Amino acid sequence: RPMYPADGRKFFDIYSWPYNIRPEITRDLGAFPFPAFWGPAAGVHSPQGEPDAVSRWIANAAKWMESHHKPSLNLIYLPHLDYNLQRHGPGHSSIPDDLKRIDHIVGDLFDFLLGQGVDALILSEYGITEVEKAIHLNRLFREQGWLTIKEELGHELIDFGASKVFAVADHQVAHVYIQDATMIRQVRTVIESVEGVDWIWSGEDKAKQGIDHGRSGDLVVFSKDWAWFTYYYWLDDQKAPDFARCVDIHRKPGYDPVELFLDPALKFPKLKIVQRLLQKKLGFRMLMDVIPLDATLVKGSHGTRPADERHFPVILSNTSGLIPDDDCISSVRVAEVIKSYFSDQ
């Protein structure tokens, strides 16, 4: 978790509770390779080390926690496969090497935990499918006259409070917020006409699926598994917000996997990065504006239910009888599986 002083600087850091874990684990394992956790340096050779540096550090941290604190439940997230599967797609020639790397990390961690008498559950959140189409819902809403745009210093920003309709995109799912409930049917009809949209939930559909939270979109839209949703809303790249070309997860109104890329239009991207870092070192304001605005670069995504069950996530356990014998279980039952383990202890 980075630290953000009031002067605009950013320092990479981690969070722990109790607080004393933070300096101790950093002393023993070294600094968390934060720049390689997300962005163009994620999943590739970088100054932070090997492509799997982040997952390796986390796995070592999990071992450290077991050795020092022996938690009853340790949730460990190893993100290595997230990067190139989205960047290049599951069929890319680089993926077998990624699989070997994470297999080694997981296998080593699994053996360590078993050696400590710990039962382990291996769970993938999702399977990533090949994608060929990006869907720009906010641009569609803008063309319909529903999105209100405010221009600031030559850049366009969404005025969410003044917009009739806007979307918050998250991979292959988008939450669509509608100011006037009488427009829901009209908005739904427009979205249904978009190539790549699969199904749309509203009202009773959301309640049935357990996602009718007050902050959920009035419509929840899913793409086909070969498409995904962007947050893009500008029609002219010259007027895109200044944060669009940066790794900036807090300002963007939606997830942006294009942050995994360096802009191919830059002749010497690494030189530009050095230039920006030098500006920062000298105390100048700067933008690390090296991210492209081309959604077609993204080749993998997740979030919707894959058409092919081979792309479903997996759950594995070394504990007999813990996982139901069904060939396929609902993802919402995973919590029950974990709870059932502790109820049997």
Structure, described:
This protein is an alpha+beta fold and 345 residues long. The chain has 2 domains: 103 residues, no CATH class; 169 residues, no CATH class. Helices cover 29% and strands 13% of the residues. It contains 9 helices and 12 strands. The strands form 5 sheets. The chain has a 4-stranded antiparallel β-sheet. A two-stranded antiparallel sheet has the order 1-12. Strands 2-11 form a two-stranded antiparallel ribbon. Helix 2 runs parallel beside helix 4 and helix 3 packs antiparallel against helix 4. The radius of gyration is 22 Å and the shape is globular. The two termini are 34 Å apart. The model has no long low-confidence stretch (mean pLDDT 93).
User: Could you give the order of strands across the largest sheet?
Assistant: 6-7-9-8
- Overall outline: globular
Order of secondary-structure elements: HHHHEEEHEEEEHEHEEHEEH
**What's the alpha carbon Rg, rounded to whole Å?**
22 Å
Could you tell me how far the N terminus lies from the C terminus, measured between alpha carbons in angstroms? 34 Å
Beta-sheet strand percentage? 5-15%
| Low-confidence runs of at least 5 consecutive residues | none
SS-derived structural category: alpha+beta
Residue share in helix: 25-40%
Largest sheet, strands/sense/barrel: 4 strands, antiparallel
Number of beta-strand segments: 12
Number of domains: 2
Mean pLDDT: 93
| Total DSSP helices | 9
Features:
alpha+beta, 2 domains, four-stranded antiparallel β-sheet, two-stranded antiparallel sheet, 9 helices, 12 strands, 13% strand
